[in-house]
Fold:
Amino acid sequence: MLLFINSDDQQQQQQVNLFNHLLFEEKIRGFETVYIIDLAKEQRPFRGEAEYIHDNHGFYSARYLPTQTPQIMVVGRQGVRQVYRLTEFLGHYLPPSAKEFP
Structure:
């Protein structure tokens, strides 16, 4: 799974923190490896369950062509299988009372 973000956007930072918390709590399962690919100008410190990649040369964005950030892509050997907006993806894992996330 690839999660494309732009950490220059404070709201996206909050959404990624929530995503990371759900990974830590093992609420999100079924994905071998999760990569957070940051398209921001500056690399940010990151601690969490996912592997952080600062895509400062645009390798991943050129290869996978995200149409927006934040965006999740589920990839396999044959390429991209599914694409989600992060808010749409998180909505499946949050209780109804917590749907008002950043």
